[in-house]
Amino acid sequence: MSDYPHLLAPLDLGFTTLKNRVLMGSMHTGLEETQDWNRVAEFYATRARGDVGLMVTGGIGPNPEGSVAHGAAMMLSQKDVDNHSIVTDRVHEAGGKIAMQILHAGRYAFSPDCVAPSAIKSPISMFAPKELDAEGIEKQISDIAACALRAKQAGYDGVEVMGSEGYFLNQFLVTHTNKRTDEWGGSYENRMRLPVEVVRRVREAVGPDFILIYRLSMIDLIPNGSTFEEVVQLAKAVEAAGATIINTGIGWHEARIPTIQTSVPRAAFAWVTKKLMGQVNIPLITSNRINTPEVAEEVLVDGCADMVSMARPMLADADFVAKAAAGKSDQIAPCIACNQACLDHTFGGKISSCLVNPRACYETELRVDPVDAAKTIAVVGAGPAGLSAAITAAERGHKVTVFDRASEIGGQLNLAKQVAGKEEFWGLVDWYRAMVKKYDVTVKLNTEVSANDLGEYDEVIIATGVIPRDPQIPGQDAGNVVSYIDILNGTVTAGQRVAVIGAGGIGFDVSEHLVHDGDSTTTNLPEWMKEWGVTDPADHRSGLAPEGPQPHAPAREVTMLQRKTTKVGKGLGKTTGWIHRASLTMKNVQMIAGVNYEKIDAEGLHISFGEAREKPQVIAADTIVLCAGQLSDRSLADALEVKGIPCHVIGGADVAAELDAKRAIDQGTRLAAAL
Ligand code: NAP
Ligand code: SF4
Fold first, then answer.
1. Does residue 338 have its Cβ closer than 6 Å to ligand 2?
2. Is 167 among the residues known to form the active site?
3. Which of 180, 355, 509, 609 lies most in the core, judged by the most C-beta atoms within 10 Å?
4. Which ligand is nearest to the CA of 661?
5. Are 121 and 177 within 8 A, CB to CB?
6. 485 lines ligand 1 (CB under 6 A)
7. Cα of 422 from ligand 2 centre, angstroms
8. Residue limits of the NADH:flavin oxidoreductase/NADH oxidase N-terminal domain (predicted)?
9. CA distance 499 to 597
10. Nearest to 252 by CA among 139, 168, 189, 155
């Protein structure tokens, strides 16, 4: 008997059966836009081979005005049908099923031609939409229906109609965006007319026996969003109009409440889907922050849904389902919900990948093939760069030994995992441990190696990481000044008033760590909901608590500083930076930019501003934490060079300025794939 009987149970839809309860949710990877259809097909086929029950493609536009941006993928012509057929054929050959998502972005479209129920610009858009007239609305409906028919002709097993996250159909539903006074606005009956009509016309176009998923926003998390009564009314109408399955959407893109990032508790919104269970007769899918088979199984056992959507976890590990079914869930590369290589890439106009799995979306290019002749490889440094290189090389058949002077593997990941809201990093280190074991990598911990120890290996990889930069502030040798390492690894407990020097990724992490006391809200859903002002949408429209966010009192008074005059936190991730800033602002962390560090003494940190060193002031602090960036630790690489022993230098040891796990893992994996 499997460990996940509910998750792995087939789902009979009457005319077809899904092999299990796992949906790979839609993701905008940017692959379809490359027009490299072999690459697109390989991305989806790899996941089909990994046994996911049903996949949904990235959002495909039904027409130019509705597509997310100029140049975004659309399904408009016979040529598009032919291209998409390459994908569906490959997926079917691999034994999978795939539905195409039809995404009309409405006012979220990055285009001056965008359209919406009313001409109201969104806070996250550059362009104000044009208000559609009745003829324009009819055109959108028929374009969506025609798009669905083409998807069927292209061989898809179904379509998903995107009705949530604040996109076009969602915009008709709520008075926040729909101020119309005709039959498409006003009463809820009128406001839901468009989504329901779209479902009806799509069903009419594709006929029976074709999967039609409707993605329904169950908790909008914006002012004047839907009530739960309206959600139920819509779900019933969508079912009656011909939907096969209802998928859950959580929060509009413009909502100021995090919904998928790493600090959001696992399965944080499954309870919302559960409220709809039993109200309709078609299967429901739940979503958001479900990233292990254990959590997915639990959600199903708890009766929250009939099926579970996991999107980013399928980037992290294409074989998620197959490994779960084989009893190897410790080998599933975990999605840590960082967004660094997926959503941040999408919003930066780059193709998505995955921080923990650089092969994601690069299936045709980054190949990890077995080697003919095994080499002996020494890897010095068991951080993300070294470990990725080690397991990739060992997977290919090389004989790998990893050395680290620390007593456990993980490097800087072991610091990150101490931060409240970054608990997922524990799982990542555990995964490396499982993979090192699986591929029989020899790991020598508590071992300091010198150049003399490395001469016998065929290849030497130096992944020795970084050393903290010395900011050379007069007085910094005083006892009240500590490194971020001492704070995060717990060797020093900070005083009540803390000044944090440096506002990069680590300055933010340290500040977050310092203002938290007790358990992280990421592991306590009711507390997290209170912190962000989320409540039951049956009690309050849209799921917004009327009292707003109610964070815990900060454990310390923290001031975070930087010398740059730019906005503090500007360099953080595109889709996560706002959350870090909001979270620290809620904890009264003072963020000061444009400072000169004058000196440190018993009073605290003395600063001034500008070239003229004006406005001197003292930040009274019991503890001053240095988070002033990093320098590469190249001492071993230099020693090897002196001895004439060639080596590869990767991760922070190579480039400290961009020290981050995404770059380190990518570099380690690519190097090992080429050795
Ligand atoms: P960073 O992002 O480069 O930030 C360094 C900070 O130090 C900046 O605020 C910089 O601001 C300041 N600084 C630079 N030189 C200084 C000097 N001489 N004196 C005083 N201040 C100085 O580096 P980081 O914060 O160390 O993070 C590096 C990367 O690690 C991040 O981008 C992130 O991806 C990753 N990260 C790692 C962890 C982890 O635990 N390992 C955690 C979070 C993030 P000014 O120059 O304006 O003063
Ligand atoms: Fe998950 Fe981060 Fe990978 Fe995105 S980049 S799939 S959030 S681990």
1. yes
2. yes
3. 355
4. 1
5. no
6. no
7. 13
8. 7-330
9. 11
10. 168
The predicted structure's pLDDT at residue 247? 98
Pocket test for ligand 2, best of 259, 320, 338, 666 (most atoms within 8 A of CB): 338
Beta carbon of 227 within 6 Å of any ligand 2 atom: no
Contact (CB, 8 A) for 291 and 331: no
pLDDT tens-digit readout, 574-616: 899 999 999 999 999 999 999 999 999 999 999 999 999 999 9
| pTM (2 d.p.) | 0.96
Cβ of residue 264 lying under 6 Å from some atom of ligand 2 = no
Domain co-membership, 125 together with 103: yes
| Partners of 434 in the β-ladder | none
| Dmax (CA) of the chain | 82
pLDDT digits (tens, 9 = 90+) for 499-515: 999 999 999 999 999 99
**Measured in angstroms, how far is the CA atom of residue 346 from the centroid of ligand 2?**
12
Structure confidence at residue 517 as a pLDDT band (50, 70, 90): confident
Q: Are residues 594 and 640 in the same domain?
A: no
Side chain identity, residue 612: A
- Do 272 and 202 belong together in one domain? yes
605 and 591 in a common domain: yes
Give, in degrees to the nearest 5, the angle at Cα 254 between 253 and 259. Answer: 55
* pLDDT tens column, 143-183: 999 999 999 999 999 999 999 999 999 999 999 999 999 99
Place of tokens 């009314």: 233
Q: Residue 262 sits in which domain range?
A: 23-290
Mutational pocket test of ligand 2: of 24, 312, 361, 426, the residue with most ligand atoms within 8 Å of the beta carbon: 312
Residue 375 neighbours by CB under 8 Å, 6+ apart:
398, 399, 458, 459, 675
Task: Give nearest CA residue, ligand 2 atom 8.
Answer: 335
* Amino acid symbol at 531: E
Joined together, the tokens standing for residue 613 give 């060193």
Considering only CA atoms, which residue is closest to atom 2 of ligand 2? Answer: 338
> What is the per-residue burial (b if ≥16 Cβ within 10 Å, else e) of 253-268?
bbbbbbbbbbbbbbbb
Q: What is the DSSP letter of 603?
A: T
